[in-house]
Amino acid sequence: MSELKAHKPDLRDLSAMEVQDLMVRLGEKPYRARQILAWLYRRGAREISAMTDLSKELRRRLSEAASLFWYEPIKVEEAGDGTRKFLHQMADGALVESVLMPEEDHSTLCVSTQVGCRQGCRFCRTASLGFQRNLTPAEIMGQVLVARDLAEPDKPLTNLVFMGMGEPLDNLDFVCLALDNILGEYGLQMSQRKVTVSTVGRVDKLPEFARATTAALAVSLNAPNDELRSRLMPVNHRYGLDRLKEALMAYPLKPTRRITLEYVLLGGVNDQPEHAKQLMRFCHGLRCKVNLIAFNPFPKAEFRAPLPDEVAAFQNALVEHHITALVRRPRGADISAACGTLAARHHA
Ligand code: SF4
Q1: Residue 339 known to be catalytic
Q2: Total structural domains in the chain?
Q3: Residue 30's Cα: distance from chain center in Å?
């Protein structure tokens, strides 16, 4: 938090304990913190002046000590399938996208954690932006609160996937602080089973992540052998598949939980029968399920989508070997909201 404390923090950059400390510093009773936290998360206050059960004087002093920003999208695009992509502008002008996907009776939000990304995965459009900066906890939480407000009433926001722009474990401290407020008693109280954080496989950060949060873990695998994975995902040069598997085997999972392996099928590249066999070997002994995602081509992409038959054959091969493998429906492809296509360009 030192990076944040140097400036006047956004109230949503603070943990529940830090909000309490702030109240004590302002000469207030600690219970005031609960009132403020309710405004921040349950009631979704957009500005400090809206906290009307605090005295005017306290609101004034609070405004001197901290800020509160609302990340209303500056642009909303809606796809034919109801998926909506939000473009958020941060206080410094940085642009970030999030994607709200309505399901039958709930909605899922794909959340961004960085402006750009430094991982350079070759099938991902965000990679072309390079890395600009980490998002703060308030900027991460801001996407969630906006989506909660904008979700259709009969499809409330219940699920989050940290699979938008950025590698969450490259921004571990801020992501975990946001997760505390997303899952916590004084925060949004979302279910830990319904909040999933996806990593390219920062093996070095996994133990710290497991200690810091109970959110579910997904790993963006995408290739079942080192030669191919290193070609697609530079992180594999540092943490090859043996090290990744070792780290996942050691990952402390509750008895009913599994790790999700995300696998983007790139036509003719990683979707052949031998790849399915290699993937089975990787899954052996691991409590996991596999999500298969057909690649969504974007302008200048160097890969093509897989053929439907190849997707089905790949899935069947896994299922026949008792590996849970689901094919994820591509969402919002017509507005570049699908997996790996977020680029936060403001083309109004
Ligand atoms: S797939 Fe994820 S980690 Fe890889 S470059 Fe894209 S945003 Fe970064």
Answers
A1: yes
A2: 2
A3: 32
